[in-house]
DNA sequence: ACTACTACAAAGTACCACAGAGTAGTGGAG
DNA sequence: CTCCACTACTCTGTGGTACTTTGTAGTAGT
């Protein structure tokens, strides 16, 4: 699928949040997960900026742990604020998708 | 619904395209239509920049007509390239929404 | 050494928001 | 009759945010 960049604005952060909500994980693995899911063009650099933002906004807790196969990993987990933000994200997502569905079917 | 700005990036243009595909229309009316649909914060300025872009990219044809209740309106209609772009937009939209649905249900 | 794994920073781009200016017609106050 | 207010309508400049690109750099196993 060609360039999804613009369409991912504002949603990629929510996706990362959802992935972290599922399990405590780290940047590199999150990137791989997104790639698997079909967001093949997402690279580490993108994910790290999102993670930095999440941390700055106090939505996640961070723990550094040795990896055994490379440099230490920084594991991220959602805190309460993060779960609330995730809920808000899904609410917005549903709102937007429902309006667009309506538009598409020519709804009034 | 609070700030949808970021989530609309990359989709608003497609919405405008879809509206124009439905009927030949003009900027002000498109804005009102989007507002009705639930995108209440979208303002004229935003729509005009999109229309300028569509025209520059050769996706629409333009016709200026007197209005009777104000300055002349610029009516936009999709051309063949515009219809193709719209089809690509929906394909991307379906792709993204399906991947996100998968992510949400914890799909592998 | 080489490769895979992992984190990060800087510069660039695209899209939308905000705010304001400017044009055209209508209806009402004086 | 003129001026003003109001609505409809278009256009432009500035700015913010998020994602991309590109590159650096460090750790550990083969």
Q: What would you say this structure looks like, in words?
A:
The structure is a homodimer. In chain A, β2 (about 60-65) and β3 (about 75-80) form a beta hairpin. Chain A is about 60% helix and about 15% strand. By secondary structure, chain A is of the alpha+beta class. Chain A has a three-stranded antiparallel sheet with strand order 1-3-2. The first copy, chain A, contains five helices and three strands. In chain A, α2 crosses α4 (about 45-55) and α2 (about 10-20) packs across α5. Chain A has a single domain, classed as Arc Repressor Mutant, subunit A, CATH 1.10.10. The first copy, chain A, has helices spanning about 5-10, 10-20, 25-35, 45-55, 80-105; strands spanning about 25, 60-65, 75-80. Chain A starts with a helix and ends with a helix. The model of chain A has no long low-confidence stretch (mean pLDDT about 95). At the A-B interface, α1, α2 and α5 of A face α1, α2 and α5 of B. The structure holds a DNA duplex (30 and 30 nucleotides). Chains A, B: This is PadR family transcriptional regulator.
Q: How many domains make up the coordinates of chain A?
A: 1
CATH topology of chain A: Arc Repressor Mutant, subunit A
Q: What's the β-strand tally of chain A? A: 3
Number of helices of chain A: 5
Give the overall silhouette of chain A: globular
The CATH architecture category of chain A equals: Orthogonal Bundle
- Helicity level of chain A: 55-70%
Strand proportion of chain A = 5-15%
Distance between the termini of chain A: 31 Å
Radius of gyration of chain A: 16 Å
The quaternary organization reads as: homodimer
Biggest sheet features of chain A? 3 strands, antiparallel
- The residue ranges of chain A in which pLDDT falls below 50 over 5 or more consecutive positions are none
Protein name (chains A, B): PadR family transcriptional regulator
InterPro entries (chains A, B): Metal_resp_DNA-bind_regulator, Tscrpt_reg_PadR_N, WH-like_DNA-bd_sf, WH_DNA-bd_sf
Organism (chains A, B): Actinophytocola xanthii
Pfam family, one (chains A, B): PadR
């Amino acid at each position: 699928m060609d360039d999804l960049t613009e369409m991912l604005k504002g949603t990629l952060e929510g996706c990362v949040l959802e992935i972290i909500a599922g399990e405590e994980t780290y940047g590199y693995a999150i990137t791989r997960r997104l790639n698997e899911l079909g967001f093949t063009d997402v690279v580490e650099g993108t994910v790290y900026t999102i993670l930095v933002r999440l941390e700055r906004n106090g939505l996640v807790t961070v723990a550094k742990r040795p990896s055994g196969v490379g440099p230490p990993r920084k594991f991220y987990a959602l805190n309460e604020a993060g779960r609330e933000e995730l809920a808000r994200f899904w609410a917005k997502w549903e709102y937007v998708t429902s309006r667009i569905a309506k538009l598409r079917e020519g709804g009034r």
